[in-house]
Design goal:
The protein has 660 residues and is an alpha+beta fold. It has 10 helices and 38 strands. The chain folds into 3 domains: 11-41 and 394-656, Rossmann fold; 59-143; 144-377, Neuraminidase, CATH 2.120.10.30. It starts with 10 loop residues before the first strand and ends with a helix.
């Protein structure tokens, strides 16, 4: 959440919405790439109050380079770019300079003779990323892909001669796997089976490639491609269907490490565990068998001596390191409680870089020395001159919902940001923030919005992980599928009940916000609970599942059908008609703010415009914000700044003030 001074007004138009004679007057403003309707001018005092919170930033680990330096991603101007750091807390040297944010990055392997990295970049948030090679010696960037298709997930062979990646270039719908010869820059198609495929890892000799076909969060299919013959071999999946991620060859080049929730010895597996399979002996080893939480990521050292993995334990990351090949645990120093992002071993295998984020500190890169156990901070990101001792740390609460599990009332986990020093007898307003996905998970990370709400506005923030969220096991993930979609909305109704029972929370002043699927949850919550929710903010949200599936980009359609249901099925179409907020806009009587990116390939902007028209058609005023240079969410600082300021103004007027 960042803020920027408002640009001069380019266009100011007064118009009447055409949806109905009862529609309220619409005040429209166009400034550069921004179109806003019914959003008042942002007061200067609010701009100044927000400024420091909007100038916090984080740094994330991208990869190690030759000479002991590392690449990090951070923002010093309008967008996130790649920087190089060569010593702890050393100078951050910016390498890429683009008006569009750089997507990820992958450094060339040490010893390959290449000195540089591959990165992705799209235009205006359309997510049709193009891969580029950045040469550190010449500082030149070269386009590797066709400039039109969607390309992502680059992976180098160990010798740096080949680059595997996923692309829609063949037909615009299927995501195939391609391998490029980096000497000639010529790509060749290696997987064209249809569906969503990704490259996972090259064998040490570069002759084979592990690949995965992704169907949904609960279903993937792993395989291996012989790069000489082109033959694809799919591995058998115990139980017929399971989730897989992170396939990697072991140093021996034959056995593999992977994460899955496949049954083990015929016993169901609720969580995704880290496993090692040796095809020669048939032996399967579960490295995280004693941990009843998901493994989220793992990496192997290039010297073949260590493996590191991260578990997600009730939203908190735990780091584990094992020796290879014996899998013996390595004693680690205590890490700050938080969330671990990207991680990788240094080229010599002696150090492990991690991105660490806590509720009171933005993301920064730390390096763990495996020999000494020392943890060294490599970046220190700015927090806008704010006093970190005053940041609010969320607590994890669990509230009862409407149904039962194992004979007991089911409970929903939620992170609770409580304003400090609430005077006795005072009830504070509440904002409920709902994640997208729907297979996403809200984590207790640094959140300048939460800190501003708590410290400057005296508003509590509740961040639930309703059913269907990842991180709580296979059963939990599937509880909202298909016709059970509104059960997750009932979890928000149960949270409203819980709020009413808390002596410090004001149940008469509750707002709800969310993006993507979370935007649908906002609209559906307003549809069902408008009498109990004063206002809602919908960011790039789904307003009708049928129109969403019809208009989302073709490469995503089958993925979303696997989660939401198939709109071509008459029975499912009836469910969509029943649960979609667009069909029940007359029941949305709370104040509504809708924000959208024009280039969104996931949830098209038409989803936002149709709900705005429908709610206005019933005589309800709606704030509407559209950025012509953004996609699925907002990534450019000036746009994020304006959206955040408008949101805070919306809460001031419709949550903190008297009843509308």
């Amino acid at each position: 959440m960042r803020l920027h001074r408002l640009a001069p007004i380019a266009t100011l138009v007064l118009a009447c919405a055409s949806a109905s004679a009862a529609s309220p007057t619409v005040q429209r403003e166009e400034v550069g790439t921004r179109i806003s309707e019914n959003i008042p001018a942002i007061p200067t005092a609010l701009v100044e109050q927000l400024n420091r919170y909007q100038n916090t930033r984080g740094a994330g680990f991208v990869g190690w380079t030759s000479g002991g330096c590392m690449l990090v991603g951070t923002r010093f101007a309008e967008t996130n770019q790649i920087h190089r750091v060569c010593q702890p807390l050393g100078m951050r040297e910016q390498l890429t300079f683009y008006p569009e944010p750089v997507n990820g990055g992958r450094a060339a392997p040490a010893g390959s003779g290449l000195d540089g990295f591959v990165f992705g970049k799209d235009v205006g948030g359309n997510e049709f990323w193009q891969l580029h090679w950045f040469d550190l010696a010449t500082r030149n960037a070269t386009l590797l892909t066709d400039g039109k298709s969607r390309n992502q997930a680059p992976a180098f062979s160990a010798d740096g001669k080949q680059l595997a990646y996923s692309s829609t270039v063949r037909n615009g719908k299927d995501v195939d796997v391609w391998v490029m010869d980096l000497a000639t820059r010529q790509p060749r198609l290696v997987v064209s089976e249809g569906g969503q495929w990704s490259a996972e890892d090259f064998s040490p000799d570069g002759k084979r490639l592990l690949v995965t076909r992704y169907v949904s969060a609960a279903e993937s299919y792993p395989g291996e491609v012989d790069l000489t013959s082109g033959k694809l071999t799919l591995f058998p999946v115990d139980g017929g269907k399971a989730a897989f991620s992170g396939f990697r060859y072991a140093p021996d080049g034959q056995s593999v490490y992977f994460v899955s929730d496949e049954p083990v010895n015929g016993k169901p597996s609720e969580f995704k565990t880290l496993r090692h399979h040796d095809p020669a002996s048939g032996k399967l080893t579960e490295l995280s068998a004693g941990i009843r939480w998901d493994v989220e990521d793992f990496v192997l050292a290039r010297d073949g001596r260590h493996l590191a993995f991260v578990t997600n334990e009730d939203g908190i990351s735990k780091l584990h390191v094992r020796t290879l090949p014996g899998h013996r645990p390595v004693t680690l120093p205590a890490l700050p409680m938080g969330v671990i992002g990207g991680l990788d071993f240094s080229p010599d295998g002696q150090r492990l870089a991690i991105t660490l984020n806590t509720a009171t500190s933005p993301s920064d890169v730390h390096v763990l020395d495996l020999g000494s156990g020392a943890l060294t901070r490599w970046t220190r990101s700015e927090i806008g001159g704010l006093d970190p001792s005053k940041f609010v740390t969320p607590t994890l609460v669990r509230y009862p919902t409407f149904d039962q599990a194992d004979g007991k009332r089911r409970t929903i986990p939620a992170f609770y940001y409580r304003p400090a020093n609430i005077a006795k007898g005072t009830k504070v307003p509440v904002v409920i923030s709902i994640h997208g996905g729907p297979e996403g998970q809200s984590l207790p990370t640094f959140n300048p919005t939460a800190q501003f709400l708590a410290n400057e506005m005296g508003v509590a923030l509740l961040v639930p992980n309703v059913r269907g969220s990842s991180g709580y096991g296979k059963t939990w993930l599937g509880l909202d599928n298909g016709a059970r979609r509104e059960d997750s909305v009932k979890d928000i109704g149960a949270l409203l009940d819980w709020i009413a029972r808390q002596p410090e929370l004001d149940a008469s002043r509750v707002g709800v916000q969310g993006g993507s699927y979370g935007g649908y949850m906002v609209l559906s919550s307003l549809m069902h609970y408008s009498s109990r929710i004063r206002a809602g903010v919908d960011i790039v949200g789904i307003s009708h599942f049928g129109t969403f599936l019809k208009n989302t980009e073709s490469y995503r359609r089958d993925l979303r059908r696997a989660e939401y249901g198939d709109e071509r099925d008459p029975a499912m179409a009836k469910v969509f008609e029943r649960i979609s907020p667009l069909n029940h806009a007359d029941r949305i009587t709370s104040r509504l703010f809708v924000a959208q990116g024009k280039n969104d390939p996931r949830v098209p902007y038409t989803e936002a415009e149709q709900i705005v028209r429908a709610v206005r058609g019933n005589g309800q005023p709606v704030w509407y914000l559209l950025f012509n240079d953004e996609g699925h969410g907002f990534r450019k600082k000036s746009n994020v700044d304006y959206y955040s300021a408008a949101t805070m103004l919306f809460w001031q007027q419709h949550l903190l003030g008297g009843a509308d």
